[in-house]
Amino acid sequence: MRAPGEGRIGVAGDISGFVVAEDQSLEARMSRSLARTRADATAQATRFSDQARAKAAEFRANLAALRAKLPATGTLSDAARPAAETLPNAALPQARRSRRLAGVLAFYWYLRGLQFHLADAVRKFDRRRIGAAALLVLSALAISAAVFLPENDRDIAAPAMASAEAKPVAAVQKQRVSEPLPASALPASAVPVNALPAHSGEAKPDVWQPVKRPFLLYNLEAPDVEAGDLVHRVAMRGKNARQDTMSWVARQQKKNTALRPNVHLVIERFEHSAPTFRPLYSDLAARAAEQGASIERMNAPGDFMAKFGSVEVADAVLATAEQGPLGCLMFRRVDTIGLVVAGWYCGTAQRPADRVSLACFLDRIDLVGAGQDGALKKLFANAERNRKSCAGARQSGRKLTWLDHEAPLPALKLSANVASTKTR
Asked: Structural domain tally of the chain?
């Protein structure tokens, strides 16, 4: 190719070629790297194939030479076979040892080829992929540990607790037997109940631990009780069980004590799983014993509806040390989320307890601070929709006056003047 020159005198020159700069973009560099990697892999594969073919040809030649050197062998007769089996290894046929050698050589070259393939694969594998794979394996192990491992040591100690619960049952069965069985009727492996140690590894059940400065979860305001009579106690069992005990006991030094009921309310919250509860009489008898009272008699339990749902209730006579026997309504509600509402509502001679007053009293339980307990919040939100209107609902406790229907008649002021006139 000829090109005209510049200037007055034209000079023509030949252009032999063009110089093109190398593309430095990411795609071009990756393409060149991929091409080099493919070329190296192809060369390595060709070299490996040539080596494998050469070794295979050498192996076949050696095997053919060994076969040519071997003498013609016949089949041993049945009479000569036992004698041949007793010969030492040096007397064995040469063909068997040759076959073993050939098998060892073939296995060796198979392992060499596998090594070449693995080395080539590791070179192509990115280090970042190795880190990601390790992170994925560690995450899978952590998730498996969180799912399959027990939450605490109580799950591991479950067999010990089961054996501890089985011993009182055996003791009760022993008391029911009127006459002991003869020694011949007992099995050889039978162990007397008295021979068992008193504390042979039995798991002690958790007890309620009182909380000194608790935050309140529930609030209750009702016109038939006074806030000054309230005694509120909070206890915890572990980290996931809470017990709120609220008691209203009318004090004798105050007025209108004959019209105010004595109420004992227990609200227990088990976040994970609620324990198995006993029948209504056994449960409330144990709770009454903790408060220094006892149930003298109790009718068959029934049901009534409150805002939480169906509540077990039974008429009973509760014997107390301070006020003597009281006519009470024993109640209990066990919810599926692990919420237990139990206690008793005791009336007086002037104002006996009835189920309507008890239902209105339970409907006034409010939730004021549930924290992160979403199930408890949802339960109270749904219960508020089922709450029925009561007379004087949402009113705080106040003192009764002579205008109230339940209040006693006030003393007439004229009576003092009449008495003074008679004395004169």
From this structure: 2
Q: Is the pLDDT of residue 326 over 80?
A: yes
Euclidean distance between CA atoms 240 and 121, whole angstroms: 53
- Indicate which CATH number applies to the domain containing 219: 3.40.1000
**For position 189, what pLDDT does the model report?**
39
Chain length of the chain: 424
Q: What is the pLDDT of residues 336-392, one digit of tens each?
A: 888 999 999 998 877 888 888 899 999 999 998 878 888 899 999 998 888 887 754
Enclosing domain of residue 244: 209-385
Q: Which residues contact 203 (CB under 8 A, 6 or more apart)?
A: 157, 160, 161, 164
Dist CA 357 CA 352 (whole Å)? 10
CB 294 within 8 A of CB 319: yes
Distance between CA 198 and CA 331 in Å, rounded? 36
Q: Are residues 299 and 226 in the same domain?
A: yes
Report yes or no: 296 and 346 within 8 Å, Cβ to Cβ: no
Closest CA to 268 of 343, 364, 344, 363: 343
Does residue 238 sit in the same domain as residue 354?
A: yes
Residue 48, pLDDT score? 87
* pLDDT in the model for residue 416: 52
Alpha-carbon dihedral sign for residues 410, 413, 416, 419: negative
Task: Specify whether the CB–CB gap between 67 and 93 falls below 8 A.
Answer: no
CA 375 to mean position of chain CA atoms: 15
**CA contacts within 13 A on the Cβ side of 251:** 8
